[in-house]
């Protein structure tokens, strides 16, 4: 089975530092981050072997003073049930040797209605409590070197000094130049589902 790529402490600190630079956090800003965010991938197609993977080392940061958010996901950190699936995922689909990471840069907005209504307001950290608050994530998503405007819904809550953000959405592989080879044994759906579950801790 293809072994999971381990990130050194130095690399983790570099990634987090890079995330903070992405949205120019001020010295006085409250910063939350995680390097153990869970990102799940489901590209299963009916009548074929389930194509599912989990990444337990997604890196992300939130500036609660303005709602800016950034995330970085190492493609090789996705773990599949079968090693051959993992190999095809990295070599044939995402080409992780050329495009080792996916990123998201954007902001969080508080939403009281559906995404289509456009009823949103600027992120206010003081409105977040132990109950989930509906949010909208807006920004730019980069996969396989292709950057697209991206918007989806999610939820966020705060328990003591931990922010929990969850979101589920689908992406179309062809939008990010991900081609599905016909010869490969693994059959993957053109529309894949992504689930996020990130616990952010306050950075002192």
Describe the protein's architecture and organization.
With 204 residues, the chain is mostly beta strands. It has one domain (9-26, 34-203): Lipid/polyisoprenoid-binding, YceI-like (Lipocalin), CATH 2.40.128.110. Helix content is 12%, strand content 47%. The chain has an eight-stranded antiparallel β-barrel. The protein is elongated. The relative contact order is 0.19. The model is unreliable at 1-8 and 23-28 (pLDDT under 50).
Task: Provide the CATH top-level class.
Answer: Mainly Beta
Q: What is the beta-strand fraction?
A: over 45%
Q: pLDDT under 50 segments (min length 5)?
A: 1-8, 23-28
Arithmetic mean pLDDT? 82
> What would you give as the CATH superfamily?
Lipid/polyisoprenoid-binding, YceI-like
Q: Report the C-alpha radius of gyration, rounded.
A: 17 Å
Structural class: mainly beta
Fill in the CATH topology. Lipocalin
Q: What is the distance, rounded to the nearest whole angstrom, between the alpha carbons of the first and last residues?
A: 39 Å
Summarize the structure.
The chain has 204 residues and is mostly beta strands.
Summary keywords:
single chain, 204 residues, mainly beta, Lipocalin, 8-stranded antiparallel beta barrel, 2 helices, 10 strands, elongated
